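Q: Predict the bound structure with flavin-adenine dinucleotide.
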Amino acid sequence: MMKENHKVLLTASQLTALRQLIGEEKVLTSEEEKVVYSYDASKRKYPPSAIVLPRSRDDIVKVMRFAYEENIPVYPRGSGSGMSGGSLPVYGGIALVFTQMNKIIEIDEVNQSATVEPGVVLSELQHAAGRLNLFYPPDPASAEFASIGGTLAECAGGLRCVKYGVTRDYVLWLEVVRMGGEVLQFGSDAVKSVSGYDILRLLVGSEGTLAVFSKIKVRLLPRPETAYTLLATFSDEITALGAGIELLKNAFVPSALEFIDSLSLQCAYDYSHDQRIKDVRGVLLIEFDGKRAQVEHDCSEAREFLSRRAGALNVEIATDRQSIEALWQIRRYLSPALFQLGPTKYNEDIAVPRSELVATFKAIKELADRHKLTIAVFGHCGDGNLHVNFMFDENNKDEKARVEQAIPELFQMVIQRRGTISGEHGIGIMKLPYLSLEYGEAELRIMREIKSIWDPKNLLNPGKIFPSDNFRTPPTTQ
Ligand SMILES: Cc1cc2nc3c(=O)[nH]c(=O)nc-3n(C[C@H](O)[C@H](O)[C@H](O)COP(=O)(O)OP(=O)(O)OC[C@H]3O[C@@H](n4cnc5c(N)ncnc54)[C@H](O)[C@@H]3O)c2cc1C
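A: Predicted complex:
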C-alpha cells in the first residue's frame, strides 16, 4: 500500500490481484471514472484509487477480505446522492459501488415484505410494490435515483414521515458484510422480534461505517386508495407554521405537512410566476391519503379548520393527478429557484420537537439578521425538520466567514431546544466537526467503541462521523 499525502493508493500488484479476485470488468481505474465517483450531493470531491462494482454477496466478501488484509480503506456507495459526503473516499482506497446489485429478489404479498439487493433504486421498489397494491412509505425527494442501501445507511426521511415514520421503521432484516469478509444477519422475518440487542436499529443510519449491506428485507403496507393535496397560503410565516402544529394537535393525520417560508416563496414566484404564490408569505403543502371517502372528509375538514381557525388566506384542494403535481411543483421549484439568492448553498437539516418549531424559526431569522446573511427555510413541518439554506457566494471570503460562524451558532441553538443537528442527511464529513456539540465525551466514546468492535482497523469509510485515528490529514469540511 502506498500513501501520497493522506491518500491511500493501490499498488500495481494490488490492482492486478483485485482484478484476478473478482474479474477485470468489475474494477475501474481510469481517471475519468475516478472523477465520476469522486463527489456526491455535498459537492465535495475526493477521487477513489479504484472503483469496484460487485454483482453478488460473494464479490463483496472477496473485496472486504482483500482490503482488510491489505489495509486498504473501503467506501460503500449507492447512487452518490448523499448530502453529507458519506460515500466520499476521503482517504482514497476503494469505492465499493452497488449499482450493479439492483435486483428486487422477491415481493411477498402474504407477509407484505420485499427482499432486495442494496443497489435497487428506491422508486423502482415503490413502483413494483404499487403494482401489487402494496406500498413502501419511505419517500425522500431523491427516490428517483437514491439506492435503497444508501437510504438505509442514512435512515432517510422525506415527505411522509409525519404519518409513516422513517426508513428505520420499515426494515425487517439486514444481511451485512464486515471488513474482513464475515457475513452476518440481524433482524427477523417476523414483524415482531425482541431477541437480543437491536443491532438492526444500530445498523440503519450507521452511514456505511460499521458494515456493508448485501441483502435487505423491508416491510410493506397496503397501498392507500388515493391521496389528495392541499395548498394553504398565509400572510406570514409564523401563522403558517403555527397552523401546521395546530392541525396535528387537533387530531388531523396528514401523510405530508410541508412548510415554505417567505423568502423561498419569493424565489419560487420569481422563478415560476405561479400566481398561487404571488405575494404569499407562508405556505403549507398538505397531503391526506387513505380510502377515498375518508380522504375527502379529511380534506374538507382541514380546509375548514385552516381557514376559520388557523388564519389561512386561501386553501386549494387538488384531487386529480395533474393538479396534485402542479401543487407539488411549487416545492420542487425551490431547489433551483434559491440560487437567485447566491451561487453557493449550505443546506442544514436540523430538527426540533414540534413545540419548539416557531421559536426555532424566529431564532434562525434573527441569526440571519445578526450575521447579515441570506437564509431561506422550508421543510418537513410535521417532523420539526427544517431545511435551513444558507445562500451566499463562497468566493466572498468575508461572507463565507460569517456563514461559518453562524452554522455552529445555529446548531447550538437547536440543541438548546432539545433538537438535533441532522434530521435526515447524516453526519458524514459535513457535520463531523459539530457532533460533539450534540453529544458529550462519554456518549462519543461509546460510539467509537461500537465502531472499533465492528471495524477494529478503521478501514470501512474512515473519516466519517468521527475524525479518523489512523489516517493523517482530516478531511476538509465546510
Ligand atoms: C435532490 C435531493 C433530494 C434529497 N431529498 C432527501 C429527502 O427528502 N430526505 C432524505 O433523507 N434525504 C434526501 N436526500 C439525500 C440522499 O438522497 C439520501 O441520503 C439517500 O439516502 C442517499 O442514497 P444514495 O444511494 O445516493 O447513497 P450514497 O450517497 O451513495 O451513500 C450515502 C451513505 O450510505 C452509505 N451506503 C451506500 N450504500 C451502502 C450499502 N449497501 N451498505 C452500507 N452503506 C451504504 C455510504 O457509505 C454513505 O455513507 C436528497 C438528496 C438529493 C440530491
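A: Residues 2-99 form a domain with the Uridine Diphospho-n-acetylenolpyruvylglucosamine Reductase; domain 2 fold (CATH 3.30.43.10).
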